[in-house]
Amino acid sequence: MTNELTSFDDFPVHQSAELIAHAATSDRNFYDRYYFNLYPDSHDLFAIFGLGQYPNLGTTDAFIDVRYGDTQHIVRSSKPLVDRADLSVGPIRIEVLEPLKRLRVIVEPTEHSVAMDVTFEGEIEALLEPRQTLRQKGRLVFDTNRLAQTGRWSGTMSIGGTDLAIEGGGNRDRSWGIRPVGEAEPPGIREGLIVLPGMWNYFPMQFEDHSIFYICHQDDDGVRHLTQGERVWHDPSREIDDLGLVVWHHDIEPGTRIVRSSVLEFPKSSITIDCTSLLPNFVSLGTGYGIDADWRHGMYQGPDLVVQGLTLDVEEIKGLAQYGIIDHLAEFRYDGNVGYGLLEQGFFGPFRAAGIMDGISGATST
């Protein structure tokens, strides 16, 4: 008989009568993930990296994707999931130095083009974002919780043989629950449905003494399934400000789905934020975020550790990658405040409010 006990079973962290190795739900799409981004103060690179576990698929994987110049450098790894306390997948590992405050992420040197050893320290208390729930034709396709945090990075990185000292900003999130992962399922009655239809915006912004978190998932009919507009101060004694609902406007590169800049108006708070893309990272290719047929988050890659490296030319990939999530390093300005952070955008299927009239075309007007 196989002993299914793992190291976390010796800690008081159980949420059901199941072992920690077994999620309380049998839904194949249960996942538990880390996401990070990093940009140095020079703003000449934008790194996206993460690690996920998929207990009901029996896999764990990790990746790093660094936009540097006109190239994206990727290292990705996958292996069977054995112990959920093991936050490593080949050369990539995460160390939780102080829960909800400090984490270390390491990419050991390999024959591939990225290595890294950096430490994140939160500059705000970790924020629990609104729960995301979305059901299609009776099936719960999204049911996730997520904490988010902005902070500062320090450490070292090597990209294509160039060694860099890292001092800069970024944000992280931890999400868990249900969302589509692994190999594609037979669609059945959901044939032709888009999993996350319409527009997705996720903008965590870092300013000198505060951060702003904006989320909007809006479908083509104008229904908003998820919204957030909150200002979180570095001083934890100050209340979080509810900015209210947003009125957005996106300037999209004509004929594409790629945002160049955005204006976010929060009438309740009399705040208008100008958002400008500085460096887009086309994270949907090569990292597991859905476009690649052979590498998706949670996909089984075989019984042994698999480690791969890619170098992608931005001009060559953006025509396809624009149909997925795009993570931009961006500048944000309002009321004399200047900050930086993530402008994450995606348009899936038609989104006529932004001039995207079908599932293939780019924007005709914005």
Structure description:
The chain has 366 residues and is mainly β. It has one domain: AttH-like domain (AttH-like fold, Beta Barrel). The protein is 2% helix and 53% strand. The protein is built from one helix and 22 strands. The strands form two sheets. Strands 1, 2, 3, 4, 5, 6, 7, 8, 9, 10, 11, 12 and 20 form a 13-stranded antiparallel β-sheet that branches. The N and C termini lie far apart (62 Å). 39% of the residues are buried.
What are its keywords?
22 strands, 53% strand, mainly beta, 366 residues, AttH-like fold, nine-stranded antiparallel sheet
The CATH class is: Mainly Beta
CATH topology: AttH-like fold
Structural class: mainly beta
Supply Rg.
20 Å
What portion of residues is helical? under 10%
Low-confidence stretches: none
Count of distinct structural domains: 1
User: β content, as a range?
Assistant: over 45%
Largest sheet: 13 strands, antiparallel
In the CATH hierarchy, what is the superfamily? AttH-like domain
Mean pLDDT: 97
Looking at the overall shape, the CATH architecture is Beta Barrel
Overall number of strands: 22
Shape: globular
Ends apart, CA distance between termini? 62 Å
The total of helices stands at 1
Secondary-structure element string: EEEEEEEEEEEEEEEEEEEEHEE
